[in-house]
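Sample intake sheet
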Amino acid sequence: MKRGPDRAVTIARLDGSDGTIADWVALQLAARAVDAPASALPAAARVRGDLEHPWPGTRIDQWHAGIDGQLAGILTLGMRLTDNTDITVIRELVVHPNHRRRGVGTALWRHAIAQSLAAGRDRLLVETTCGLDRDFAPGEEFVATMGASRVTMETGRHLAIADLDDTDLRRRLAAAEAASPDYTLVRWAGPTPDAYVDGIARMSARMTIDVPMDDLDWQPEVWDADRVRSRDAIAAIRQTRSYTTAARHDPTGELAGYTALDLPAGNDAFGWQEATLVVPGHRGRRLGLRLKIENLRYVLRHEPALAIVDTANADVNDHMIAINEALGFRPVSRHSEWELKLEGTR
C-alpha cells in the first residue's frame, strides 16, 4: 500500500564524499535489518572500493535515488569489459524501508536499463534472495513484474563456526587424505605466490566452464597471470582478506584444485566461501572435501573472530552440495538470477 502521493524521484551518481558514502552505508544497514539481519555488515571501505578500485576488467557505476532531499534508494551496476560484454549486472538495488512502494525501485530499474542501452548492452542480470520460509519474496515479485525471467536457482547456506564438529572433520579429513596420497596441499594468505599464478589462472578460467549455470548464457572468461595479479592487488587495496589452499599433484608438480575463502572489508565475523574447483582428471579422490576442510582450519588460525561462512550452490550441483553439508553448511536462503533481454526496449 502506498503512503500518500508519490514524490518525484531524483537519481544522481555517487560522488564519493565521506558524507554520501556514510549515507549509503546507513541505507544498507536499514535494509539489512529488515531483509537479511544475518548477512555480513555493510562497510564504507567496500562502497569506496567499488567507486575507486573496481575489480579488473569491470566497470562499476553507483547511483543514488532521492525523494525530497532524502536518500531513498541505491543502485550499483557492473559491466564486464573483457568478456560477457553484452551484459549489465545489477549488483545492488536497494530501497530504504521507509521509502518502499513509492516508485523508487521502478525508477532505479528503469535507470539501469537506460544505462545498459547507452553502453550497448543487450541483457540485464539481477540476483534476488528469498528466505526458505517464503514461497515468493518481494524482490522476486518485483523483478518478475519488471519482465525479467529466472535463469538460475541456487541455495544459500550458512556454516556456524560454533557448531563445527571437530572430531567429525578430523575423521573426514583423514579419509580424504587417504584417498589422495599423491597430492600435497599448499596455502597462502593474500596475493597468489608467483609459483602458482599460472595454475590459479587456468583453474579460474575453468570456473566458468565447469560450474553449473542452469539457463544462464555466460561465456567462458579469459584468465592469465596478469589478471590474477591484478585481482589480488585490487583485493588488497579493498581490504579484502583472502585465504587459499591448493592441491599440488606430486608426480607432475601441477595444481590439481583449489579453494578460497574471503573476509570482506569491515567484517571479522562473516566470511564468504569463494571458488572451489578440482581439475578433471584429478576428481574422484576427495580433493574437494580435503581442500575445504584444510582451508577452513587455515582461516580459523588467522581469523579467530570468524563466526559465519556463507556460500551458495546451484541446486543441480549435487557434488559440491554434499561436500558443503559434510562440513556443516545448512540451507538458509534461495538465490535466483534473473535476466531481462533489452532488444525490445531500445
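Comment: Residues 18-35 form the longest helix (18 residues). The CA atoms of residues 262 and 280 lie 25 Å apart.
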